[in-house]
Structure formats: structure tokens, C-alpha cells
Design a protein that fits this description.
This protein is an alpha/beta fold. The chain contains ten helices and 13 strands. A seven-stranded mixed beta sheet has the order 6-7-8-3-9-10-11, sandwiched between helices.
Amino acid sequence: MLSIKDVSVRYGRSVEALRNVSFDVPEGEVVCVLGGNGAGKTTLLRAISATLKLHRGTITSGEVEFDGQRIDRMDPARIVEKQVIQVPEGRQVFGRMSVDENLRAGGLTASAKRREIARARIYELFPRLEERSKQPAGLLSGGEQQMLAIGRAMMTEPKVLLLDEPSLGLAPQLITRIGQIVTQINQEFGTSILLIEQNASMALRVSHKAVVLEVGELALQGNAAELAESEDVQALYLGGHGGHDSLEHERVDSQNRPPRRKLGVWAG
């Protein structure tokens, strides 16, 4: 469904943020992208949503495809029309508008009938938002604002939902709830999800596949459950050590170069 093909990104004339990154988000699946600060996670989302220009960034090679059509050269509004929708880091709700007004703003491109159907489904998914539908969004808790940001994006009935650090700044019990929401949206709505996360434990638990970025390069990718058991991922992201040497994940070796060891993960 969504394909990132050998994408490299540069900011300005010197800062290369991504190098030859390739992976797919299959229809109906959740794919998480892990990595520390500076790994290139947010840059990846900007490349998909065609918002790099707003940050003086450029795709220098490769392309992004959705349903077989190249989208990285499209206007961001056109990508939204194709139902590839991003929930930005930091929630960014309209604080002075009510919860209900925020949701309606998210569905402006849909017909009135579709908006009402989507709104009813979102309130079913987030009963807490319905209870607070008339309250200003700025008065909601952090967890409630994150639910609202996701709900607003769901008003467009996305085919692919791009979630940028949805657990950021939330308490552990709320992080668990965000993970449940990701699973529920995927299973009940059939929405494909690209989940950018630093909370590896939650992300790997709710994802079908996982990708690890390190310093702008694709270091590792494979089945999420298998990667969660690998010694490298355990040590780097889960604070433990796995003992499963038979892990069958893809070890990236681009352009047939000799592999090199980097931060405990084999990379090409």
C-alpha cells in the first residue's frame, strides 16, 4: 500500500538526514519505526506527507508511493485527499475550540453525512471525548488531547494513519491506552498505521512489523514480535537482553557492501 523506496533526504546543503531507506506498510497492518533522537523518524514522516519543504528539506533520491502512485512530489493537501493522514507530534489541537469543533474541523473535506457517521464512530471509540464534547480542547488532559488529535485525523477515514510519537509525555497507564487505541483502529477500521515511537515496548507489542533507524539509515527490519526478542533490540530499546539467536529478521546490506557493526545492530 505505502512504499518507501531508497529514500534519501537532505536539509539545506549539508545535513543528510536519511540515506537509502526502504520498507513497506502493507494494507491492514501496523508498522512501527524505532530509533533515538536524530535517527530520522520525523524526517521520514515529512518525506511521506510532502512537508519537507516547510523545513528546508529535500528528497535527494528515491520516492514514496501509495497504491502504486508516486506521492512525494504532490502537494500535501493532495496527499490528504488520498487519505494518507498524519497526527503530528505534540498533538496540536485547537485549544480554544471545543472537542466537537475540533472533530468537525478534521472532517471539512467530507460530506455532511460522512462527517456525522465518522463523528459517531469516533465518539464510540473515545467515550471520554463525547463526555467533554462541549469543552475547549485546551482544557483536556494530555491523554485526552492525544485521543482528540487521533480522532480528528480519523474524521477523514484515512487509509493510512501516520502517528508521530503518540505516547510522548504521557503517563505509563495512558501509554498502554494509546497502544490499545492503535490496535482498535487497525482492527475495527482496517486502517494501515505507520507508528513512529520511542516507546519500543508499546510499539512492538501493537505492530505487525518493525523498522529500526539509526543515524538516518535503516539498521534492521522484520516481524515485530521476533525483533522484540532479539538481543540487540532488547539491549538498545527494552532495557534487557534476549536469548534468541535464531531470529529470522532481514539484516540490511544495501549495495552489497560489507556489513559494519553500529550501536549493537548489523547495518549495511
